[in-house]
Amino acid sequence: MTPAARSARPAGVPPASRPAGLRPVWLAAGVAAVLVALVVGVSLGPVTLPPGSVAAELLNLLPGVHLDSGLSEREVAIVTELRLPRVVLGLLVGGMLALAGGCYQGVFRNPLADPYLLGVAAGAGLAVTAVIALGGVGTEGALTGLPVTIPLAAFVGSLGAVGMTYALGAAGGRGRSPAMLILAGVAVSAFLSAGQTYLLQRHSDSIQAVYSWLLGRLATAGWHDVLLVLPYAVLTTVVVLLHGRELDVLSVGDDEATSLGLHPQRSRYLLIAAASLGTAAAVSATGLIGFVGIIVPHTVRLLAGSSYRVILPLSLLFGAAFLALTDVVARTAAAPAEIPIGVVTALLGGPFFILVLRTARRVLT
């Protein structure tokens, strides 16, 4: 193995070791976390419902299941029409952000890479702000529905942002080192944020709608937002999970990957596009929710293993559960008021990011 390949290997993986596969116990734990988050998220709110009754009512949604949940018609409507769409949207968005974070970390071989730091969220934010400001969407106040144009615009913006970050990082002449990529992401985010500020200054009637979107929220208008995000989430999940083995190969360096029959650049472009698609759908539906792509993949890596065949599926499951439970905190911590979910994830992610930064100093030098 070449010196470059040895130096590119992630910290903590012995030279002769082969990453272990996904253990059934961790997969079961991830599924259990999603189910617990689903029941807890639907049960808690202004009207607290018994978790057992909520679980029974959720099972009634399955074909051929008929259980007596003991809930009234009003409570059933609260479960199925108000809370369940919000919780399901939280599961989708959390899974997408965590999966994209793990994917970006593998593609860039950078432990600090996530959709927020690489400028993807800022790119999507600029595009969505342009749609809101120039198209007059939601100028009457906070957004109440998700127009079809918003996810499409967010995807274009996010893909353009990550392309700018990737190109700017390579321009430093250090082969897209982790430090250069982080600096490039900061620069691209600042540039795109400036454009966003300019649009808001020129279209002040859109500030309230954009501001509520920027803070991050899971308020929905029923199942509309869920159905709009779902196709993007499914496509992203399929593409990224099918390429987990390729991310393991890329982690040892381009020379080694090429010798094993992999086309490194083609794989990177495909994974970047897929992760950007999932990020764009998540960001367009809920606004800018940071740190999920750092907190979840790193926790999975520490607990379950360093192989991306382990990190990616578990990040999807635990990321979904994490954001759904975080939304419960956002809804109940200051009840009857609601804290923006982006604020809650930032409060949790800030200290975690500092911890990751300290442990990743060898990679950043």
- Which stretches of 5+ consecutive residues score pLDDT under 50? 1-18, 139-145
> So what's the oligomer here?
single chain
Q: Would you tell me the overall average pLDDT?
A: 82
Query: What overall geometry do the principal axes of the alpha carbons give?
Result: globular
The CATH superfamily label reads ABC transporter involved in vitamin B12 uptake, BtuC
Biggest pleated-sheet summary: none
Measure the end-to-end span: 22 Å
The number of helical runs is: 16
Strand tally is 0
Q: How much helix, percentage-wise, in residues?
A: over 70%
The SS-based structural class is: mainly alpha
Number of domains: 1
What is Rg? 21 Å
CATH architecture: Orthogonal Bundle
Strand content: under 5%
Strand and helix order: HHHHHHHHHHHHHHHH
- The CATH topology, please? ABC transporter involved in vitamin B12 uptake, BtuC
Spell out the key features of this protein.
16 helices; 0% strand; ABC transporter involved in vitamin B12 uptake, BtuC; globular
Q: What does this entry look like structurally?
A:
- With 365 residues, the chain is mainly α.
- It has a single domain, classed as ABC transporter involved in vitamin B12 uptake, BtuC (Orthogonal Bundle), CATH 1.10.3470.10.
- The protein has 16 helices and no strands.
- The chain has helices at 3-8, 24-43, 51-59, 73-108, 120-135, 149-170, 178-202, 207-214, 224-242, 244-250, 254-259, 264-286, 292-304, 308-332, 341-359, 361-364.
- The chain is globular, with a radius of gyration of 21 Å.
- The chain starts with a helix and ends with a helix.
- Residues 1-18 and 139-145 have low confidence and may be disordered.
